[in-house]
Specification:
This protein has helices at residues 3-16, 22-34, 50-64, 69-73, 97-106, 125-133, 146-158, 191-196, 217-229, 245-254, and strands at residues 75-78, 81-84, 115-119, 138-143, 165-169, 179-184, 230-239, 257-264, 270-277. It is α/β, with parallel strands linked by helices and 290 residues long. The chain folds into two domains: 3-65; 76-277, Rossmann fold (3-Layer(aba) Sandwich), CATH 3.40.50. It has a seven-stranded mixed sheet with strand order 5-4-3-6-7-9-8, with helices on both faces. The chain has a two-stranded antiparallel ribbon with strand order 1-2. β3, α6 and β4 (138-143) form a beta-alpha-beta unit.
């Protein structure tokens, strides 16, 4: 079978399974099976080898079962870097890149943070990207999943920051240290939301997705721990779910934190909340955005 026929067949199977982006997903999977960029697949017309065809057809079956493409291929791009991912670790999302943008802007007129913490590091996409932005910084990645920390260590190794990154197995409320920058993408879905969420989320760790009946449990924990681990002129950059800005700001203010900035994602949703210890000035920091 040639490339075009195999691509059409894969697209048809995915569409019949209710995959919204059947055309794109088939192109991505076939490109990976052939070892070429997805964009070049539609222009190819040669025959597909038996091993490549079997690989592609196996991946199509997995995708028809709604397994995330990142799990099927074992990697996901974040901030133009390639991160290894798999079952047991949250798939990095483009929305989370907003946290890196917010942190970068906040430290734009300073030498940058010396030590960075990541609460609930998952694949390590946030802390590793930050360490690459600030080559003199050191980092500590916290997660209660040993599997997640394994992925963080793997990614830190192949992205060249392993010597500057320490990993610790613990929950948010057990984090210790003093940090200039704390990054966190906490679980923020309401329990009821998961039932109506895309089937792909069922493959990802529930602990990384849901946070109680109102989706705010993790933010309450952050309100307790952040004042303890932020240095006087430090900031925390925390991801928000849609519609959560007001309740999270209220939780943080009650906990002794000032909200000093909010940055929207590409869809204009308030996504990155910037907080600091109450009454402390962040040297060189720009004003709020969004």
């Amino acid at each position: 079978m040639n490339v075009r026929d195999l691509l059409a067949e894969g697209r048809t199977h995915l569409a019949a399974a209710g995959i919204d982006n059947a055309r794109l997903d088939a192109r991505v999977l076939l490109g990976a099976a052939l070892g070429v960029a997805p964009g070049s697949v539609p222009n190819m017309s040669g025959e597909v080898g038996a091993a490549q065809r079997a690989r592609f057809e196996g991946w199509i079956k997995r995708r028809m079962g709604r397994e995330p493409i990142a799990y099927i291929l074992g990697s996901k791009e974040f901030w133009s870097l390639e991160f290894c991912v798999g079952p047991g670790v949250l798939v990095p999302r483009p929305d989370s890149e907003t946290l890196i943008e917010a942190a970068r802007d906040a430290f734009a007129h300073t030498p940058g943070p010396n030590i960075i913490g990541d609460l609930g590091c998952g694949s390590g996409c946030l802390i590793i990207t930050a360490l690459r932005l600030w080559p003199l910084a050191r980092g500590v990645a916290f997660d209660l999943s040993e599997r997640a920390l394994d992925y963080t260590r793997i990614n830190a190794g192949h992205l060249g920051v392993a010597e500057r990154l320490e990993t610790r197995l613990c929950d948010f409320n057990q984090a210790e240290g003093q940090f200039d920058l704390v990054l966190c993408n906490p679980p923020y879905l309401r329990e009821s939301e998961l039932a109506d969420a895309p089937a792909e989320l069922g493959f990802e760790p529930k602990l990384a997705l849901t946070a109680g009946a109102d989706g705010l449990n993790a933010y309450r924990v952050l309100g307790v721990i952040l004042p303890q681990i932020l240095r006087p002129q430090a900031i925390a950059v925390v991801e928000l779910g849609a519609g959560q800005l007001a309740p999270v700001e209220q939780e943080f203010l009650a906990a002794g934190l000032d909200v000093v900035g909010v940055q929207p994602d590409l869809s204009k949703v308030p996504r990155a909340l910037i907080a600091q210890r109450a009454g402390k000035k962040v040297v060189g920091m720009r004003g709020p955005r969004g």
